[in-house]
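Hi everyone, sorry if this is the wrong subforum. Our group has a chain we'd like a structural model of before ordering constructs, and none of us has done structure prediction before. Sequence below.
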Amino acid sequence: MASVVIPLSGWMTQGIETTARLAGAAALTHLVTRAITLGALLVASQGRGGLGTAIERWDGRWYRSIAEHGYPDALPRQAGGDVVTNEAAFFPLYPWSVRPFVTLGVPFWLVAVVVGLVVSTAAAVVIALTVREYATARAAFFVSAAWSVFPTAAVLSTAYAEGLFTLLAAATLYAVLRRQWWAAGVCCALAGFTRPTGVILVAAVAVAAAQAIVTRRDVRSLVAVALGSLGVTGAIAHAGLRTGELDAWFVTQREGWQVRFDGGYTFWRWAAGATSGPRGMLAPALAVAVVGLIVLTVLALVARPPLPVATYLVLGMLLALGQGGAFYLSMVRFALPIFPVLLPLGVLLARLRTGLAVAAVGAACVVSALVGVYYFTVPTAASP
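Answer:
Right subforum, don't worry. Here is the predicted structure as tokens:
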């Protein structure tokens, strides 16, 4: 991949030339970004319910409900029979990971912050290690740094499952690229048990398995596909068995949360019509972000990443940017776990002088923190 073969220089040569140093640099950078984001949320949330209220906003209140009370035994319905918004739409691994601490009396918001910090830091490290499999160490470091300051990265510090899912997705791709099929299958299954977008990981693993069978007759790769498929199917089956309706998750998504794929039509129609008020300022910013993600996707594919990574990238961005229904404004957040899209930025930053590259990451961190302040502390803000 000649397009990303960039010689290491200066302090970076000594800083991330080994796996341990690369991991350490990625972890330290991520921790700094989380400190800045949490500090901004702490200051901005004063007089608005405090930091705990900000951490638990939006999806956080649903995860808190699951952590404290579990999933519903039956789907709640309106008088007309339609299912209303409820916890059955949320996959179990994240709320189950925080529930033991909540049952011990630790405040949910505090558990969410600590768990989010641990899993997102681990994700930043695994992202760097994964990208290093097909790019230089310097570029891999900056891809990880760019992920840490992604516009919607504030969700990594609040009660959202994106950090956990990204960790498991990156671990899956890392294992696939190193042909560690059992590990890939387990990580893929856990990712699928975290978010429904785990289906794109199953596709990436299946592509890797097919490639291994065709080129090396490595039928052992099929174990990754078999294991990986258990995650999403298991989460959907859990919702069905819990409520007594096998299609509970699908019905809740469709009727309760009004989630659908429309290729981005709802978003662009809204962006074209939102020209006044607070949404009038939000619309062009989101439109620019979406166009930027499309451009980055094309550039990342031009760099010819490994086929499983390219599969995850393309399918992930299609799902994220094609989201319609009630959550068309969450497109940029849905793109957060699709870290391979950041390769062009990582390559660009790696080409810059270290001081300039660090300044760019720092500026992006401030913007990311401000976006988090808007979404999690401003009462009129739309869901991220």
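For your construct planning: The longest helix spans residues 19-44. Residues 1-15 have pLDDT under 50 and may be disordered.
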